[in-house]
Amino acid sequence: MIEESGRYLVAMRKTDDSFGGCWEFPGGAVEEGETMEEALKREIKEELDIEISVGKDAFQFVTETPRFKIDIHLFESKIEKGMPKAIDCDEVRWVTLDELDTLEIIPADKEAVEWLRRR
């Protein structure tokens, strides 16, 4: 979760990906030998061409799809270098929580959005 001045950075998944055209908080899977923080930095660099610092693991939850279980961690992160670009996604935007209501969010991130509203 990258938040600046009350706006959150979201990315639109590529059309040919699962949930293509839906929005998500940028991130990704941990590869063997990586910590979650290392994976997040790598994924953000690959997807958005920015460097981040990773802060507190603020919210965790588990969600399941028909094919697998996903263990999600929402880290409070901050951009240290660069401006977000849509490298491995179709679009990036800064949005408020209210603007998130107008976007189609991937199912795995809906619980995170609800947590942000309650916070």
Note poorly predicted spans: none
> Mean of the pLDDT scores?
93
Helix amount, in percent?
Answer: 10-25%
Biggest sheet descriptor: 4 strands, antiparallel
Broad shape: globular
Q: Would you tell me which CATH topology applies?
A: Nucleoside Triphosphate Pyrophosphohydrolase
Alpha-beta classification? alpha+beta
Q: How many distinct domains?
A: 1
Count of alpha/pi helices = 3
Summary of the model, kept short:
The chain has 119 residues and is an alpha+beta fold. The chain is 24% helix and 35% strand. Strands 1, 2, 3 and 6 form a 4-stranded antiparallel sheet that branches. Strands 4-5 form a two-stranded antiparallel sheet.
Account of the protein in words:
The chain starts with a strand and ends with a helix. The mean pLDDT is 93. The chain is of the alpha+beta class. It has a single domain (3-118), classed as Alpha-Beta Complex (Nucleoside Triphosphate Pyrophosphohydrolase). The protein has helices at residues 36-48, 97-100, 107-118; strands at 3-4, 7-12, 23-24, 51-64, 69-81, 91-95. It has three helices and six strands; from the N terminus they run βββαβββαα. Strand 1 (3-4) and strand 2 (7-12) form a beta hairpin. Helices cover 24% and strands 35% of the residues. Strands 1, 2, 3 and 6 form a four-stranded antiparallel sheet that branches. Strands 4-5 form a two-stranded antiparallel sheet. The longest helix is centred in the middle third of the chain and has 13 residues, at 36-48.
